[in-house]
Amino acid sequence: MTDSLxxxxxxxxxxxxxxxxxxxxxTHTARMYNPLCGDDVVLTVIIKKNTLSxxxxxxxxxxxxxxxxxxxxxxxxxxxxxxxxKVNQSVILSLLGIELSPIxxxxxxxxxxxxxxxx
Amino acid sequence: MxxxxxxxxxxxxxxxxxxxxxxxxxxxxxxxxxVIEKEIExxxxxxxxxxxxxxxxAERATQEYENVRTMVSYFIGARDPSEIxxxxxxxxSINLIAYSLGRQIVSRGDxxxxxIMEHHSNFVPWQMLAFEAxxxxxxxxxxxxxxxxxxxEKAKVSLEGIVTKKTKILAITYVSNVxxxxxxxxxxxxxxxxxxxxxxVIVDAAKAAPFIRINVSDLGADFVAFSAHxxxxxxxxxxxxxxxxxLTSMFPFNYGGGMIEEVTLTKTTFRDTPYxxxxxxxxxxxxxxxxxxxxxxKTIGLDEIKTHEEELAHYTLEExxxxxxxxxxxxxxxVERTGMVSFNLKNIHAHxxxxxxxxxxxxxxxxxxCAMPLHKRLGIPASLRASFYIYxxxxxxxxxxxxxxxxxxxxxx
Lengths: 119, 413
Description:
The complex is a heterodimer. The longest helix of chain A has 17 residues, at about 100-120. A 3-stranded antiparallel beta sheet of chain A has the order 1-2-3. Chain A is built from 5 helices and 3 strands, in the order H-E-E-E-H-H-H-H. Chain A has a single domain (about 10-120), classed as Sufe protein. Chain: A (Alpha-Beta Complex). By secondary structure, chain A is an alpha+beta fold. Chain B is of the alpha/beta class. Chain B has a 7-stranded mixed beta sheet with strand order 2-8-7-6-5-3-4, sandwiched between helices. A 4-stranded antiparallel beta sheet of chain B has the order 11-12-15-14, with helices on one face. A two-stranded parallel ribbon of chain B has the order 1-13. Chain B has 2 domains: about 5-25 and about 300-405, Aspartate Aminotransferase, domain 1 (Alpha-Beta Complex); about 40-300, Type I PLP-dependent aspartate aminotransferase-like (Major domain) (Aspartate Aminotransferase, domain 2), CATH 3.40.640. Chain B contains 14 helices and 15 strands. In chain B, helix 5 (about 90-105) runs parallel beside helix 6, helix 11 runs parallel beside helix 14 (about 395-410) and helix 12 crosses helix 14. At the A-B interface, helix 1 of A face helix 12 of B.
């Protein structure tokens, strides 16, 4: 039996996502949608002085995409834009702490793609 | 009665994965040993090309290959083996019609009709044909039970207002690969031809051929397509049955070797059907092994298979409803279903459920099952589908239900 993808950290972020919602006075908004599985994520952020000061997300999707969004928003809050540009797939995987098949990788990367639309 | 324990011994995959609960036969069936061995036999003993050599090995290969054509014709009640064309799969069979016939007969202002419950392989070829020809693309909707909206008030099939004199093509699936519904294909064909005697009716039988006794002569359609791999045969082999008069008048789909009568610098003439549709070296070993699959199916009996998988699906559905109650949505009508159940657990994405079921060695399909228009119509991005075949029993259904309970415990927010 392979190790479960659904490690406690992922389940925990799935059940209690951080920064869930949207920011009314957001400076930037981006939405990413994967029609193949219906994962849908909207990222709203406030960027001031080259720093991402606030972030929130909402949307529907699987546990992997939601946990990934939750972990990502925690990770990027307060970071400089130049640092955010360096956030890539391996950062997401280390936040999630799991290996993913190519199909499920799409779920995990959806929030990151939304972030890259913004910055 | 199907002896599942005995049948499982015929499928080598269970020796490698004794715990496997395979509930994805609607995607592809597992393969019995005799099919695998028949394919190997060709490569070991007579792996030469067909329809070409004058030597005895070539004659044997040709004979084995052509025998299967005859077997298929008996299997589906075709009058003449030359009406059987081997393709790469149902998808290619349907594309063949769309290109070789569709593009000859459909023009601007005509209509091409299909249904919302089609697999993409019987939807997109017609959508593209209509788009290219400037024809109207009409899609028959479903009702709240998931059945096609083709019933008049007396519950008789009526295609009034759907099929018209301008409808050149009606493409319809025999069995929905999501909704577990068997369409009244014979009645649909009869009604369509009553309205427009020139209409060409294409039946996608990919999900029907594994368990329904098809009689193409009785069905009345012009073309029937299905795949070997969903009925115990190898991947890469499909069948297109067509009425001989149509096949004779159609142009080839592919040009190349094996389908030529004469080639000169100025023109080429083609062999008769079925050879003009089988350009190039076909999947010889696959076709020959498909013959072994047909024999195996015949030994068990399609009627027995149908009863077996319907009972299993019914049992599974009852168990699921009992355990999950209002926390489960089942798609398609809840009685008289074929051997599959498509559903979602409340607030749990199908991909998560399927991934977790894999941890219990349970293989189900999750996604849109190549039926995006239908999923959109149902208002869901994805569903879970458990489909059953001859090697499944109630233990598999129980394993699914028990594992889903654990999935719910872990994933429900």
